[in-house]
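Changelog note: in this version the structure field was regenerated for every chain. One regenerated record is shown below for reference.
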Amino acid sequence: MSHSAPEKLGKYEVIEEIDRGSMGVVYLGHDPYVNRPVALKVAFLDELNDPESGELYRKMFFNEAHTAGLLTHPNVINIYDAGVDEDNCYIVMEYIEAGKTLKEYCSSDNLLPINNVVEIIFKCAKALDYAHRQGVVHRDIKPSNILVTPDQDVKIGDFSIAHIYNADSTTTQMGGMMGSPRYMSPEQLREEHVTTQTDLYSLGVVMYELLTGRQAFPADNFSQLVNKILNESPLVMSDYRSDLPEALNNIVSKALEKDVSDRYQMGLDFAADLTKAFDNLEKPKEDISAQEKFDTVKKLDFFTGFPDAEIWEILRASNWQDYDMDDEIIVEGDMDDCFYIITNGNVAVMKNQSVIRTLQKGDCFGEMGYLAKTKRTASIKSADDTSLMKINSTVISQVSLNCQVRFLKVFLRTLIHRLSATTEKISQEI
């Protein structure tokens, strides 16, 4: 299927083709207005112009922009824009550099470590929980629709057949059996009413493949596959891998229950069981909404002068972390390239077990580790219940140059203030 690359799509510059899928060609592009790379998905012209299926294809193509555009979550690919330029229908998405789909990790000779799989599925479960609470059912969760970055960040994409089920929606939804048969739930195959639990079933199938490198329901043809999904249970995963904890067998079994009443009810339930199995995962809780985070951050002195678009960009790329009183945040001697902004609460800066400074809401810390890549020279503990934005150097390197300059100005102002305070304290002691 031919498709020559346009030089531009609207305001976006087209650089090179990076992928092809069932719904179109994906190009690496550049947004000159905010100076960032973007992914440009362009619909196949032949499919758009097909007299029989063209209308459905167009609807599916823009359905992705409509549904994913409702979502703002760090583990969902951001949709920035969509439009039509002459004959080209296109969607502008977040570009995930060096991202790979989970498909290549579903082979028995290329499996990820168990802990990594649990962390990936945990993030997916929380992202789906968020989407479901916004009234969106993905309906096509499978390895090739989930991207993972080199540092194990996860991004769910391709909402082309997603269903919006909130009461306010007046959009006619696409019916019939849609999705990828291998990952379909029993109710999808029976063309029954699809709920959020269909996505959690499909995520269970993905987890099974990531842990075993085998299909949950191996079959030679479609009818055999349907029969197995409707009537049989998959082989226990530990039959393939003796090192798998029993808890993971139980979690996948529950996710793959035929009856929705026996299955996980919400993504947070799925995530909670994963947390119980692996204590090193963050405790799942209902995230405060993206808008609440934005409203909180915008009021902080740190972000004075930052345009709203840049604050949203930083919010989407950063981690929002909560700490209880006396939790360790930074340990003296450790080395990393992250810095933190206090969005709520207070932290204590400690040297040799003594508190040398207290920082409060709106303050930042850890910027020297980010700027100089040096070992931490002090420890930081939460002085009470505290919420932080954790941002690493990779995030900042990907934002616009103007935004990077604003960060450096804040760091410089902070360092001057702390140097002045330290000088004054020393002079008083002399």
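Spot check on this record: The first helix runs from residue 45 to 48. Residues 167-177 have pLDDT under 50 and may be disordered.
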